[in-house]
Amino acid sequence: MVDESTRKTLSSIPLLKTKAGPRDKELWVQRLKEEYQSLIKYVQNNKEADNDWFRLESNKEGTKWFGKCWFIHDLLKYEFDVEFDIPVMYPTTAPEIALPELDGKTAKMYRGGKICLSDHFKPLWARNVPKFGIGHAMALGLGPWLAVEIPDLIAKGVISYKEKTG
Amino acid sequence: MDNVEALKLKIAELEHKLKSLASKNVREKIEVMSSEVVDSNPYSRLMALKRMGIVNNYEDIRNFTVAIVGIGGVGSVTAEMLTRCGIGRLILFDYDKVELANMNRLFFQPHQSGLSKVEAAAETLRNINPDVDILTYNYNITSVEYFDDFSRILTHNSLNNGPVDLVLSCVDNFEARFTINAVCNEFNLTWFESGVSENAVSGHIQFIVPGETACFACAPPLVVASNIDEKTLKRDGVCAASLPTTMGVIAGFLVQNTLKYLLKFGNVSNYLGYSALTDFFPTMNLKPNPNCDDRNCVLRQKEFAAKPKVEIVKNVVEDDKPIHEDNEWGISLVDESVENDKENQNVGSGINLAYTLPGRGVGDGENSKSDDTSLEELMAQMKSI
C-alpha cells in the first residue's frame, strides 16, 4: 500500500491531535497551530535529508493555502505553483491539492488542476482522521503524484525546463 | 454607405427571424394540471397514473421542491426527468462549466460549452417545462465561504420558504457528499445519495433519512462489487471513465425513488446498487451507526428512537379463491428472508465497504507539540524557512 520510504517519511511527520475544521472557531486555531508545527517539522526534515521539495503558506484564516513545489529531473529543477482550499468538512475530508498550471496537460487531473490521488489515499486518510494533516496530504498525495507524472510529462514534451531567477 | 444600409436591413431581418424562431413552439405556463387526454396537454400521460391507480395524487408534485447538487452526467438527467414530471421547484447547485469532454453523457449540447452548468441546464429546462420554478447557484458547496449560504438555501428556499422536500446528491466526489451529509444531518433533511463508479460500470442510490437510516458518515462508503479482478483494472493515464448508459440508469433509479417518496406510492429503496457487467441489482437496508462520527446524526437517532413508531399497514388484497385449485407437485413458498443488519459491517451480498476502519490511527508517531508559540509566529516561521 505504502512503500518503505514513504512510510519512513510519514513516520517523521508529527501527527495532529485536534479534530477541528474551519467552522470550529477556537478549536480551528488550535488545529491550525498543529498544522503549522507539523509542516515546519516536515520541511525541516526534508531540508536535512536534502530532499526539500515544497513551501506552503496560508491566508490568515488558514482556509486557503498556496505555495510552490519543485521536482528535480536530470539535474534540472521544475517548479510549480500549488494551491488548495481547506474543505468545510476538514479534517474528515482531505484537501484537494491542485497544480493549476498543469490543468489540461495530463489526464491524471480533475478540472482546475486538482491532482488525481491513488486509490489508497482516501482510505488511508479516513483511517487516520484527525491525526493526518496537510503535511501528510503532501507526502502521500502530491509527492507520489509528482514522482510519477512529472518525468512522464517531461518525456512527452508537455512541460519544459524554464530558467528561474532567484 | 449603401453597404451599411444593406447590412442594417439584413440585421433587422435576421433579428426578426430569430424572434419568430424563439417564440415558435414555446409553450405557455399551465395553471392547473389537467388529466384531459389531448395532444396539447403535456401532463395527460402523467395524470393517467391516477386513473391507472398507481398514484392517487399526482398533481401534488407541483407543491414539492427538490434540490439537486451536482449537475453532471447524473444530475442533469435527473433534473430533466423531474422537469418533465412537472416538479414544483428545482434548485440546482454546481460550480462547473459545460465542456466538450462532457458530451459522452446525456443532456448538455456542444453549443453550451463554456456556459456554467446550472445556467445552461436552467435554460434548457425552462424551455421544456416553464411551469417548473428553477433556482440556480453557481458555486462550490465544499468551500468554507459558501457553506452557510448552501445551508440557508436548503432550509429556506422551498416553495413555501421552508426546508426543501428532498435533496438529491449527484456529485462526483467524497468531499461534496460529506458536506451534503453534514448539512442534512444538522437540519434534518431527507436526501438521496447517488454515485457511479470511476470505472463507469457500477453505481448506486442510497436513501438517507437522518436518524432513521445510515448516514454517509455512519460507515465507510459502500461499493458494488464489480466482479472483476481489481489488478486487471488499468488506471494508467486517466482519473475517471464515464458512460451515458450507467449514468442514465442511475438517474432513472434516483428519480423513480424520488417520485415514490414524494407522491407516496410503492416502496422506496434504502439502497439500490447496479453492476453493469453482471446486470446485478442488490438492495438492502442500512441502520444508522450509534457511534457515528457526526454528532448531529447521533442526535437525530435519539430523536427518532423517542418517536412512536409508525406501523406500516400493508394493504393485503384478499383473494377469495386460491390462485391454483390444486397443487399437484406440492409446490410451496419457503421463507428465504434473512435477518440482516445485525451490524453495519454485515452488508448485503455483492456490496462491499470501500474500506474498513480498523482501530483508529496508525499508532505510534510523534504528536505535534502544542506549546505557547502563537499562530502568527508559526506562520512567520514557516515563511522564513
Automatic annotation (TrEMBL), chain A:
GO cellular component terms listed in the entry, alphabetical order: cytoplasm
Domain of life: Eukaryota
Species of the source: Zophobas morio
UniProt lineage: Eukaryota, Metazoa, Ecdysozoa, Arthropoda, Hexapoda
Coiled coil: none
InterPro entries in the record: UBQ-conjugating_enzyme/RWD, Ufc1
Matches recorded under SUPFAM superfamilies: UBC-like
Active site: C116
CDD domains documented for this protein: UBCc_UFC1
Gene3D superfamilies: Ubiquitin Conjugating Enzyme
UniProt keyword terms in alphabetical order: Ubl conjugation pathway
Protein name as annotated: Ubiquitin-fold modifier-conjugating enzyme 1
One of the GO biological process terms: protein K69-linked ufmylation
Free-text function comment from the UniProt entry: E2-like enzyme which forms an intermediate with UFM1 via a thioester linkage.
Single GO MF annotation: UFM1 conjugating enzyme activity
Similarity-based family: Belongs to the ubiquitin-conjugating enzyme family. UFC1 subfamily.
UniProtKB/TrEMBL annotation, chain B:
GO cellular-component term (any): cytosol
THIF-type NAD/FAD binding fold domain mapped to chain residues: 43-293
Sections of the chain in a coiled coil: 4-31
Matches recorded under SUPFAM superfamilies: Activating enzymes of the ubiquitin-like proteins
Role: E1-like enzyme which activates UFM1.
One record GO biological process: protein ufmylation
Key word Magnesium present: no
Keyword tags: ATP-binding, Coiled coil, Metal-binding, Nucleotide-binding, Ubl conjugation pathway, Zinc
InterPro entries found in the cross-reference section: D-isomer_DH_CS1 (IPR029752), ThiF/MoeB/HesA (IPR045886), ThiF_NAD_FAD-bd (IPR000594), Ubiquitin-activating_enz (IPR035985)
Pfam families the UniProt entry points to: ThiF (PF00899)
One MF annotation (Gene Ontology) recorded for this entry: ATP binding
Family that this chain belongs to: Belongs to the ubiquitin-activating E1 family. UBA5 subfamily.
Record-linked CDD domains: ThiF_MoeB_HesA_family (cd00757)
Identification of the protein by name: Ubiquitin-like modifier-activating enzyme 5
Lineage, broadest ranks: Eukaryota, Metazoa, Ecdysozoa, Arthropoda, Hexapoda
UniProt keyword Zinc present: yes
